[in-house]
Design brief:
The complex is a heterodimer of chains A (99) and B (498).
Chain A lengths: L6 H10 L6 H18 L23 E2 L9 H5 L10 E3 L7
Chain B lengths: L1 E13 L25 H4 L8 E2 H13 L3 E2 L2 E2 L2 E4 L9 E4 L6 E9 L7 E13 L3 E3 L9 E4 L6 E7 L6 H18 L11 E12 L5 E3 L3 E6 L2 H22 L9 E6 L4 E4 L12 E2 L6 E2 L2 H8 L6 H12 L3 H9 L2 H14 L2 H19 L10 H12 L5 H13 L9 H11 L7 H14 L1 H8 L5 H12 L5 H12 L3
Parallel strand pairs in B: 14-15
Antiparallel strand pairs in B: 1-11, 1-12, 3-7, 4-18, 5-6, 5-17, 7-8, 8-11, 9-10, 12-13, 12-14, 15-16
Classes of the chains: A mainly alpha (99), B alpha+beta (498).
């Protein structure tokens, strides 16, 4: 059984994702994410003592593509999902060096 | 009390591929047309599937082999999560615990003539994708930042050195040798202006106190080093700053978090940057979209077969085969592969390695730099210079005359058209530079010069050896191309030993 998810964990993950959560949201997500983790934790019931850990879920290897340049999206299409653009660039709120 | 400077370098090299590492978008440098080299994969759109570029992987393995690294039989890709506007997926595909190579070394020459070599350890080399480019508003008016994703997904090889470097000069030397090796291998163009080669430096000091205690100052990572000169300057600055900081605060490694500082070239100082997230905060996990790679012995052999002679081996060979000094071998090889090839062709043709080296590293290099030409653009090709120098060896012209021909060939050629050996014959004929060793032709002139210069003759006879120099000069002036050695012998004979 994994350790219980705490509000401090939620705040840390939110900070890394640059999300600002209200106190109510921290409580809400602590409960919801904790529920998800508890569900996944049910995998812990399987006995894996004799089983080598896998490094990857897919048993395939060496899938390559040839180094050929293929057409890219037109700029207009590339920018079409962006919340804000100037027609050439994606625009984001000013990036500050210091936090 | 003494201090030791401890430096480790992280170098990011853009590999010479046609397309990006996980998609078919062009990886060409194209800052003037932002966001025209993107697709759902490198934009990080849902449902897209990255697939590894075979060429990128092979170039990376080739480089690691040249750096004496062990190649892992099994390697995989991981997601490094961090949040920044130039990283569309919110994670970078990189390699964490199973990089494709580790434990290598690069030997560098330190100090001057006979200064010896030092082996700098390579912790690992791994493959990853580049991020995009943010264009910040410099006006301070708080307008939006622009993001160009042309570069996102460009294949990068990260080469991490051991903290084996002990001075800013050694750090610079390591980078020069690494760059030379990478260009020899033809795995990267190493163009620092275009960001094909980037470097971060980890620096701290070991302060050996008089009571025998050793204190380590906190490690600082310096970013934004856009030239080898700036790497040297930034480390020099940081060494001084860390010592002063330690004197002031007494803070040791482990007592404060690792700091990231940026090099401000205009002000000549490092300035603090954002606090570096702890490694565990990147929350690495295996990328489920990319399958692992197993490296077979056959694949390794086929990549090993593409390796060329390394710069360090070539220097040694030049010393052995052509009799070059340490210094000459270094100058010739360090100018790059094309330049060293040029030297070898000239040396082979004229049969005199030392002579070829003098010309190539002095005359050719000087004229190249003056005209701002690369060796590939230099109008006197190796075959022609070899032909010219062969004439010195065969005593057809003097070195002085050869130099005249060399400059004339360049002067005649404002259009930078390649010059043929026939031009050499023409200039020698026009200027009468053919070496005259015909004593019959010289006898009359010598008699005339002796007759016209009674004072110099008298001086010489009185024991002033130097007086003969003036007479030789006059004969040479009268008979262009006269062999000075022949003239001297004949003059001394005529005047009789004093």
């Amino acid at each position: 059984m994994a350790a219980q998810l705490t509000p401090a964990d939620v705040l840390k993950v939110a900070k890394l994702a640059r999300l600002k959560l209200s106190d109510a949201e921290v409580g809400d997500y602590t409960a919801k994410l904790g529920g998800i983790l508890a569900y996944v934790d049910s995998l812990g019931e399987v006995n894996t003592d004799e089983i080598e850990p896998m490094v990857h879920a897919v048993e395939l290897s060496n899938v390559f593509r040839t180094d050929e340049a293929t057409p890219s999206l037109p700029r207009e299409a590339a920018l079409s999902n962006a919340p804000k653009t100037d027609g050439q660039f994606f625009l984001v709120p000013q990036i500050l060096d210091a936090e | 009390m003494t201090t030791t400077t401890i430096i480790g370098l992280e170098v990011h090299v853009q590999l010479l591929t046609n397309s990006k590492i996980f998609c078919g978008c062009s990886s060409a440098f194209n800052p003037h047309q932002p966001n025209v080299q993107t697709c759902p994969v490198c934009l990080g759109l849902p449902g897209s599937l990255p697939v590894m570029n075979r060429r990128a992987f092979e170039l990376a393995v080739k480089t690691a082999l040249a750096l004496n690294c062990d190649i892992a039989p099994f390697t995989k890709w991981d997601r490094k999560q961090y949040y920044y506007p130039d990283l569309p997926k919110g994670y970078q595909i990189s390699q964490y615990d199973l990089p494709f190579s580790d434990d290598g070394a690069l030997e560098i020459e330190v100090g001057g003539e006979g200064g010896g070599t030092r082996k700098i350890g390579i912790i690992r080399a791994h493959l990853e994708e580049d991020a995009g480019k943010n264009v910040h508003d410099e006006t301070g008016r708080g307008t939006d930042s622009q993001v160009d994703l042309n570069r996102a997904g460009t294949p990068l090889l990260e080469i991490v050195s051991q903290p084996d470097l002990r001075s800013p000069q050694e750090a610079k030397r390591y980078l020069e040798e690494l760059k030379l090796l990478l260009t020899y291998l033809n795995v990267s163009d190493c163009n620092m202006q275009e960001g094909s080669l980037r470097c971060d430096a980890n620096v701290n000091l070991h302060i050996h106190q008089d009571d025998g205690h050793k204190v380590a100052t906190p490690i600082v990572e310096i970013k934004n080093l856009n030239s080898f000169r700036n790497v040297e300057l930034a480390i020099e600055f940081e060494v001084k700053r860390q010592y002063e900081e330690w004197e002031k605060t007494g803070k040791k490694m482990g007592e404060v978090a690792k700091e990231t500082r940026g090099w401000d070239a205009a002000r000549g100082k490092t300035v603090p940057q954002r606090g570096k997230e702890e490694a565990s905060d990147y929350r690495y996990f295996p990328d489920p979209d990319l399958v692992p790679v197993t490296v077979s012995a056959e694949l390794l052999d086929s990549i090993r077969a593409t390796l060329c002679e390394f710069p360090a081996d070539r220097r040694e060979r030049f010393k052995g085969t052509y009799g070059l000094s340490d210094y000459d071998a270094r100058v010739t090889v360090d100018q790059g592969q094309a330049f060293a090839d040029y030297f070898e062709e000239v040396a082979g043709l004229c049969g005199d390695g030392k002579q070829a080296c003098n010309w190539v590293t002095q005359d050719v290099l000087r004229e190249m730099n003056e005209r701002n030409l690369s060796i590939g653009e230099f109008p006197i090709r190796a075959a022609v210079l070899g032909n010219l120098l062969e004439r010195i060896a065969k005593k057809q012209i003097t070195i002085k005359s050869a130099r005249e021909v060399f400059l004339e060939l360049l002067a005649e050629n404002p259009s930078r058209r390649p010059i043929s050996s026939a031009h050499i014959d023409q200039i020698i004929a026009e200027k009468g530079l053919a070496l005259v060793t015909d004593t019959g032709e010289l006898e009359g002139v010598i008699a005339e010069v002796v007759g016209k210069n009674p004072k110099a003759v008298a001086d010489f006879k009185a024991g002033k050896q130097a007086a003969v120099g003036a007479l030789i000069g006059q004969v040479m002036k009268a008979v262009k191309g006269a062999d000075p050695q022949t003239v001297r012998t004949m003059l001394v004979e005529k005047l009789g030993n004093p």
